[in-house]
Amino acid sequence: MLFIYGPLILALISAIPTTVFAKRVVENWEVTYVTSNRGLDQPPKRGVGVNHKFPLPVVHATKGDTLVLNIFNSLNETTTMHSHGLFQRNTTYYDGAAMTTECSITPGTSFSYEIPLEQAGTYWIHGHSHSQNFDGLRTPLIIHDPKDPYKSDGEYVVAVEDWWPVTFNTTLAALLDVTGQSNPFAQPPNLLVNGHPDAPRFDFIPGQTYRIRLVSMMSLPLWEFAIDGHELEIIEVDGVNTKPKKVNVVRLAPAQRVSVLVKAKESCDSNYSYHVTMFGNFLPPIPGVFPSRVDGLVAYSSDAPLAETVGEIPSEPFDEMSIESLHGPIMKADRGLYFNATSGFLPDGTNWESFNLVTYRNPDVPSVFTALTDFINLNPISYGPQTNAHVLQLNEVIEMLFWSATQLSHPLHLHGHVFQIVEKGFINDTMGALTTRVAKDKFPLQRDTVLVNSGEYVVVRFKADNPGVWLMHCHFDWHMALGLNMVFVEAPKEMMDVIKVPQSVIDQCKRQGIETKGNVVGNMAYDYDGAPNLPHLLHDAPAVLASAA
Ligand SMILES: *[C@@H]1O[C@H](CO)[C@@H](O)[C@H](O)[C@H]1NC(C)=O
Ligand SMILES: *[C@@H]1O[C@H](CO)[C@@H](O)[C@H](O)[C@H]1NC(C)=O
Ligand SMILES: *[C@@H]1O[C@H](CO)[C@@H](O)[C@H](O)[C@H]1NC(C)=O
Ligand SMILES: *[C@@H]1O[C@H](CO)[C@@H](O)[C@H](O)[C@H]1NC(C)=O
Ligand SMILES: *[C@@H]1O[C@H](CO)[C@@H](O)[C@H](O)[C@H]1NC(C)=O
Ligand SMILES: *[C@@H]1O[C@H](CO)[C@@H](O)[C@H](O)[C@H]1NC(C)=O
Ligand SMILES: [Cu+2]
Fold it and tell me: Which domain of life is it from (predicted)?
């Protein structure tokens, strides 16, 4: 087995003095179709993997290193690679968002992403083109911190993904079926942990403390992690260190990450089970198939009996309002933006999703190039009527209110940033009794992906201090493909000074005959003829909660 998780890696890393020089962490990845059953009792499916196999290599690096992803595209469609959670300061063009920050890597060509790693924590890398993430193009990215405030004696990665019996294309066809007869969930996903149907074994030595990095690479379900007889202490959420917070279970939505410290028992009298449960309260249960669970072994001793699971395995929402970040007082907002995440119909009867009834379509010219075109870059309409672009001023603090009045839930992800979560509540609650706000003397939790459940709203804040073009979207692959995306054009004036687009990015566009300046269609004037321009969605009235006044 080539890919090593856990203590071995940590042992190697902790043997290196903390004064080592920054290194280049180079990954040479050929993106290929891989037909596999992933060790499951089901027919093989054509997925998208790396170097002709699954699982993908797990990437380990140290803060200060430079991550170099040399990608060769062996698919017959374009591909891109997104390093989820990285700020990409001054390197917005390496963010991997297809047709937002690059033109994409065409079949038979190569491209290198070269990303200085200025953050530490738990991240992941995934395809950001043609929903290749859903078909398996995803892997953890662990960035170790030589000055980590939280010490541990060893660590494990638990990266969880959903593997569907059909390709994304098949599912999408069902989602867009105007007859409404297709059930995209007819063939629900299986659960894989670190790329396999079985969970890895944790070897615990009495008295030691372990860090467990939980990585959600799911494309739709939520999941929970718990260990029998052991408390979990949350110390990191989406790459940001938190004040320690003890819990019995951690719930993650797609794209979220959490690190916990686990203190081993003082004796080796028993082994224990841990549990990874895949579920989604917004998905119909299928007895024996979904929700599903994989149990792993926490091994203390070769002759120890396995302690029985006592009572119910714990299950509860991740209480973001009760967890504090280690840094950053609550920011005062300069400007508020309101986003109603809704579904609705186009006149042809197809069902799409939107922020404020605008369903996203890729521009003909990637937004990064429009943002680097003087004068027109300041006007949101230059990015196209269907791009849902918002132009932000340098250093203004943006408050966003997300509201989900439909029956759908959304894990919403902002590229290039973390945001502070300052308020959450139920939208049916006119008295404010069900609302929770961060107290002024507390440091709000910061993260890059927040789950907004059906019937809830969430208020987040971030500072526009990272000139670049950043996608904000739902991280359910279904919803993203149905248009739940928008673009933040952050400090376009300053971008012109700090963003120097490499020739390799321009070459991607040349190969496809795509303009690298101008508005959504490459014009220099206010002329958008030919740009994607759909009518606003028609409300899906029956899906709205009756009490959402
Ligand atoms: C891409 O290649 C696969 C086989 O590798 C084939 O099944 C599929 O039809 C091809 N798609 C296109 C658009 O050529
Ligand atoms: C998926 O479907 C789209 C539209 O039908 C097609 O253009 C594309 O080639 C398909 N991709 C694959 C990998 O089959
Ligand atoms: C306890 O864990 C050890 C590995 O250290 C394993 O050999 C043993 O079979 C486990 N016991 C049970 C009952 O699973
Ligand atoms: C949000 O959208 C829903 C339709 O899905 C609508 O019923 C509701 O009034 C909207 N809320 C606001 C405040 O615009
Ligand atoms: C509002 O919605 C929540 C969650 O769906 C529910 O628990 C609560 O009872 C509702 N409250 C009212 C006043 O309808
Ligand atoms: C980004 O570019 C600006 C201007 O050139 C420079 O001052 C800053 O140090 C750069 N930041 C990083 C993280 O490279
Ligand atoms: Cu992402």
Answer: Eukaryota
Fold of the 1-147 domain = Immunoglobulin-like (2.60.40)
Q: Could you tell me the sign of the dihedral formed by the alpha carbons of 382, 385, 389, 391, in that order?
A: positive
77 Cβ below 6 A of ligand 2: yes
Q: Which of 202, 154, 228, 233 is nearest to 300 (CA)?
A: 202
DSSP of 405-439, one letter per residue? -SS--EEEEETT--EEEEEEEETT-TTSTT-EE--
Q: How far apart are CA 422 and CA 400, in angstroms?
A: 10
d(CA 95, CA 91): 7
343 lines ligand 4 (CB under 6 A): no
> pLDDT digit string (tens) for 268-323?
999 999 999 999 988 889 988 899 999 999 999 999 999 999 999 999 999 999 99
DSSP secondary structure of 325-394: BSS-PPPPPSEEEEEEEEEEE-TTS-EEEEETTB-----SS-HHHHHTSTTGGG-GGGG-TTS-EEEE-T
Is the distance from the beta carbon of residue 32 to the nearest atom of ligand 1 less than 6 Å?
no
338 C-alpha to ligand 7 centroid (Å)? 21
> Which residue's alpha carbon is nearest to atom 10 within ligand 1?
76
Measure CA of the first residue to CA of the last residue in the chain; give whole Å: 56
339-386 per-position pLDDT tens digit: 999 998 888 888 899 999 999 999 999 999 999 999 999 999 999 999
Classify burial at 381, counting beta carbons within 10 Å of its beta carbon; exposed 0-12, middle 13-18, buried 19 or more.
middle
* Rounded distance from Cα 453 to ligand 4 centre (Å): 15
Domains 150-325 and 335-511 fall in the same CATH topology: yes
Question: With a 6 A CB cut-off, is 107 part of the ligand 2 pocket?
Answer: no
Please list the alpha-helical segments (H only) found in 17-167. Answer: none
The amino acid at 207: G
In this structure, the residues whose C-beta lies within 6 A of any atom of ligand 3 are 271, 297, 299, 301-302, 304-306
**Predicted confidence (pLDDT) per residue in 63-100, tens digit:** 999 999 999 999 999 999 999 999 999 999 999 999 99
C-alpha 532/C-alpha 364 separation (Å) is 8
- The rounded distance, in Å, linking the Cα atoms of 110 and 444 is 41
33 lines ligand 1 (CB under 6 A): yes
pTM, full prediction: 0.93
Which amino acid residue places its CA nearest to atom 8 of ligand 3? Answer: 302
pLDDT digits (tens, 9 = 90+) for 474-497: 999 999 999 999 999 999 999 999
The answer as to CATH 2.60.40.420 being correct for domain 150-325 is yes
**Fold exhibited by the domain 335-511:** Immunoglobulin-like (2.60.40)
Question: Rounded to the nearest whole angstrom, what is the distance from the C-alpha of residue 437 to the centroid of ligand 7?
Answer: 26
For the chain, the maximum distance between any two Cα atoms, rounded to a whole number of angstroms, is 76
- What are the domain boundaries of the chain? 1-147, 150-325, 335-511
